[in-house]
């Protein structure tokens, strides 16, 4: 089998891989190869730097080969990589072999399912899993959602036309992102039909981000290879609501896990399964959506002992995104950043960080190839965590250590401002300096909070007035 030779090879057509390829392309004339299992790749459009660290963008899906038209130095092969011989720098797929000089692995993650090989338990990860979900949803009357992150939150809000039981292991909803106070703020919108309808109508005018198409699926034989992960708005763009009856009934079961799933042979109700929760309650449902997070898809590293893994399964990378294998970098959901984080940055597997690490990996690869590695320092985006999204129809901005992550409870205090149905603001202060913020609604506080966090401004003299809507903090410090 002949080998094609490329200076730069990137594996993975998700946000991390595509951003890496695009960045390599803009500052280098050598040919670049993108290998991706999925026929569609994720491309970022309308990128907007809202402030120093808050960014917003749309994500579109493109046929993998279309990328070659916009990136002239890029060759795309839709191939599943089976094996990498890291000593000889050779990548093997079923049909071909490729030789690389510098490689970036961006293979993303795969859903962690609460039960493997159970036809009534589905995980949502990519376009194909959403198609399976939609098919099952058509005839569903009762669905159980397990998980408390972004996917579960979105589903609990979007699913209509069937009863929803939302089983979460924590004592408040959406706890991957927000605290119990914000969860309480959201609850009426989730549970109260009228309020929800108003928010939906508002949301329809505000929300302008991507609506995903359903074009293209991966090779059905490669059940372990996933397409690019979906991103925000995946649920609103897909017809989850295809029934006349659009009622939305959500029942939340707090502080529980799944104890047992059994096929329902009891009665004629035709529910497929009976689920027992750890609080002893039993529900008969059509199926379970397991939205319990993803685990890094690290299988391509199985042929080397040079990489180290974090406790969450991610491949540890240095502050130059090196994996430990010579000339092999990694970015996106597959990594765990193994460096001393700046005080206000945290790692989360989000598409913002997939973009940022993909971009930074390309810069590091280029510098390495030009013997200029020492000149590289961490991008500014790793100074302060920022995430902009929508939950339950509200704009949500998370900044810095928004939940006091990594801080002892005794070390920090929280100031909260709440206007029911409108906004929820929480800032975390340590020694009078802002460490993070949760901003829900149209608060217009994001830039101010970001500046106060980044500048480490001493706010002690302000006391509770920090969140007083009648005081203009920026004037205060002028
Ligand atoms: P992926 O997008 O997973 O891409 C991995 C790529 O690698 C794919 O193209 C795959 O085909 C390819 N690949 C894997 N193995 C091989 C192989 N052996 N050979 C060749 N190619 C291979 N993030 C947010 O910030 N906000 C949200 O609201 C949000 N909502 C989400 C909702 C859902 C339903 C899901 C699943 C995720 C959501 N995320 C969200 C997370 C976000 O989508 C991911 O963090 C991000 O997309 C990861 O990008 P990635 O490029 O690292 O990996």
TrEMBL record:
It holds the Pfam family Pyr_redox_2. Keywords: FAD, Flavoprotein. One of its GO terms (molecular function) is oxidoreductase activity. Signal peptide: none annotated. Residues 6-162, 243-358 form the FAD/NAD(P)-binding domain. InterPro entries: FAD-bd_OxRdtase, FAD/NAD-bd_sf, FAD/NAD-binding_dom, FAD/NAD-linked_Rdtase_dimer_sf. The keyword Nuclease does not apply. The keyword Flavoprotein applies. Its cofactor is FAD. Belongs to the class-I pyridine nucleotide-disulfide oxidoreductase family. PYROXD1 subfamily. This is Pyridine nucleotide-disulfide oxidoreductase domain-containing protein 1.
């Amino acid at each position: 089998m002949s080998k094609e030779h490329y200076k730069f090879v990137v594996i993975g057509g998700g946000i991390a891989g595509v951003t890496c390829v695009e960045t390599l392309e803009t500052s280098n004339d050598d040919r670049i190869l993108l290998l991706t299992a999925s026929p569609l790749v994720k491309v970022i459009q309308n990128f907007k730097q809202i402030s120093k660290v808050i960014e917003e963008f749309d994500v579109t899906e493109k046929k993998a080969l279309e990328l070659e038209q916009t990136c002239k130095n890029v060759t795309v092969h839709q191939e599943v990589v089976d094996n990498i011989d890291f000593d000889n720098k050779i990548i093997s797929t079923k049909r071909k072999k490729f030789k690389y000089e510098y490689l970036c692995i961006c293979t993303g993650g795969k859903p962690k399912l609460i039960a493997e090989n159970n036809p009534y338990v589905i995980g949502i990860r990519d376009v194909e899993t959403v198609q399976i979900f939609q098919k099952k949803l058509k005839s569903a009357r009762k669905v159980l959602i397990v998980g408390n992150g972004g996917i579960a939150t979105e589903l609990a809000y979007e699913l209509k036309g069937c009863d929803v039981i939302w089983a979460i292991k924590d004592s408040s909803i959406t706890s991957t992102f927000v605290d119990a106070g914000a969860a309480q703020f959201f609850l009426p919108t989730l549970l109260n039909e009228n309020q929800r309808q108003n928010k939906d109508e508002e949301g329809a005018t505000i929300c302008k981000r991507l609506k995903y198409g359903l074009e293209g699926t991966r090779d059905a034989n490669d059940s372990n290879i996933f397409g690019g992960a979906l991103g925000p708005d995946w649920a609103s763009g897909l017809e989850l609501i295809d029934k006349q009856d659009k009622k939305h009934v959500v029942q939340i079961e707090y502080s529980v896990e799944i104890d047992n799933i059994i096929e329902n042979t009891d009665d004629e109700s035709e529910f497929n399964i009976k689920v027992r929760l750890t609080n002893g309650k039993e529900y008969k449902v059509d199926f379970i959506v397991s939205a319990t997070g993803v685990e890094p898809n690290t299988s391509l590293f199985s042929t080397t002992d040079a990489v180290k893994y974090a406790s969450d399964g991610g491949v540890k990378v240095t502050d130059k995104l090196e994996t430990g294998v010579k000339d092999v970098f990694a970015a996106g959901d597959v990594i765990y950043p193994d460096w001393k984080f700046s005080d206000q940055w945290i790692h989360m597997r989000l598409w913002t960080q997939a973009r940022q690490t993909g971009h930074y990996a390309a810069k590091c690869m280029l510098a390495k190839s030009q013997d200029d590695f020492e000149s590289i320092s961490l991008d500014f985006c790793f100074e302060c965590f920022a995430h902009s999204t929508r939950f339950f129809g509200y704009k949500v901005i998370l900044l810095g250590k928004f939940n006091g992550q990594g801080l002892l409870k005794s070390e920090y205090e929280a100031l909260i401002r709440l206007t029911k149905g409108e906004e929820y603001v929480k800032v975390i202060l340590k020694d009078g300096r802002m460490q993070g913020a949760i901003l829900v609604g149209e608060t217009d506080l994001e830039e101010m909070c970001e500046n106060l966090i980044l500048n480490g401004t001493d706010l002690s003299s302000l006391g509770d007035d920090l969140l007083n809507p009648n005081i203009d903090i920026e004037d205060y410090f002028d």
